User: Which sequence fits this backbone?
Protein backbone atom coordinates (compact mmCIF):
# COMPACT_ATOMS: atom_id res chain seq x y z
CA UNK A 1 0.00 0.00 0.00
CA UNK A 2 2.95 2.31 -0.48
CA UNK A 3 4.67 2.13 2.89
CA UNK A 4 8.41 2.65 2.63
CA UNK A 5 9.14 0.55 5.71
CA UNK A 6 7.01 -1.42 8.12
CA UNK A 7 8.52 -1.73 11.58
CA UNK A 8 6.84 -3.94 14.17
CA UNK A 9 7.61 -3.88 17.89
CA UNK A 10 6.30 -6.59 20.19
CA UNK A 11 7.23 -8.51 23.30
CA UNK A 12 6.39 -11.95 21.92
CA UNK A 13 8.81 -13.66 19.55
CA UNK A 14 5.96 -15.55 17.87
CA UNK A 15 4.19 -12.33 16.90
CA UNK A 16 7.42 -10.88 15.53
CA UNK A 17 7.88 -14.00 13.41
CA UNK A 18 4.30 -13.65 12.16
CA UNK A 19 4.90 -9.98 11.33
CA UNK A 20 7.95 -10.98 9.26
CA UNK A 21 5.88 -13.65 7.50
CA UNK A 22 3.33 -10.96 6.60
CA UNK A 23 6.04 -8.72 5.16
CA UNK A 24 7.32 -6.48 7.95
CA UNK A 25 10.64 -4.93 6.96
CA UNK A 26 11.96 -4.83 10.53
CA UNK A 27 10.89 -6.42 13.79
CA UNK A 28 12.11 -5.16 17.14
CA UNK A 29 11.78 -6.92 20.46
CA UNK A 30 10.24 -4.80 23.21
CA UNK A 31 12.05 -7.09 25.64
CA UNK A 32 15.37 -5.92 24.19
CA UNK A 33 14.15 -2.30 24.07
CA UNK A 34 12.41 -1.93 27.45
CA UNK A 35 11.70 1.81 27.38
CA UNK A 36 9.69 3.98 25.01
CA UNK A 37 12.75 6.21 24.52
CA UNK A 38 14.89 3.25 23.45
CA UNK A 39 12.20 2.09 21.02
CA UNK A 40 12.00 5.55 19.48
CA UNK A 41 15.80 5.59 19.12
CA UNK A 42 15.71 2.19 17.38
CA UNK A 43 13.00 3.36 14.96
CA UNK A 44 14.96 6.53 14.21
CA UNK A 45 18.06 4.43 13.52
CA UNK A 46 16.07 2.40 10.98
CA UNK A 47 14.59 5.51 9.33
CA UNK A 48 17.69 7.66 8.99
CA UNK A 49 16.69 9.83 11.96
CA UNK A 50 13.17 10.61 10.74
CA UNK A 51 11.12 8.34 12.99
CA UNK A 52 7.66 7.00 12.26
CA UNK A 53 5.13 8.77 10.04
CA UNK A 54 2.28 6.53 11.19
CA UNK A 55 2.00 4.51 14.40
CA UNK A 56 -0.68 1.92 15.07
CA UNK A 57 -1.07 0.59 18.60
CA UNK A 58 -2.82 -2.73 18.15
CA UNK A 59 -2.29 -4.11 21.63
CA UNK A 60 -5.43 -2.78 23.34
CA UNK A 61 -3.60 -2.41 26.63
CA UNK A 62 -3.96 1.15 27.93
CA UNK A 63 -0.41 1.31 29.29
CA UNK A 64 1.03 0.70 25.80
CA UNK A 65 -0.55 3.79 24.21
CA UNK A 66 1.80 6.43 25.68
CA UNK A 67 4.79 4.61 24.18
CA UNK A 68 3.15 4.48 20.76
CA UNK A 69 2.18 8.14 20.99
CA UNK A 70 5.76 9.01 21.97
CA UNK A 71 7.05 7.09 18.94
CA UNK A 72 4.86 9.25 16.72
CA UNK A 73 6.22 12.40 18.36
CA UNK A 74 3.03 13.24 20.21
CA UNK A 75 3.16 14.95 23.56
CA UNK A 76 0.44 13.66 25.84
CA UNK A 77 -1.16 16.17 28.14
CA UNK A 78 -2.25 15.21 31.63
CA UNK A 79 -5.95 14.55 32.05
CA UNK A 80 -7.79 17.86 32.19
CA UNK A 81 -4.69 19.67 30.91
Assistant:
Amino acid sequence: MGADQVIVIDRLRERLELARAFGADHTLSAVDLPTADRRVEAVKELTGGFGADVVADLVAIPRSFPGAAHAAGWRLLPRGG
Observations:
- The beta strands are 7-10, 26-29.
- The helical segments are 13-21, 36-46, 65-71.
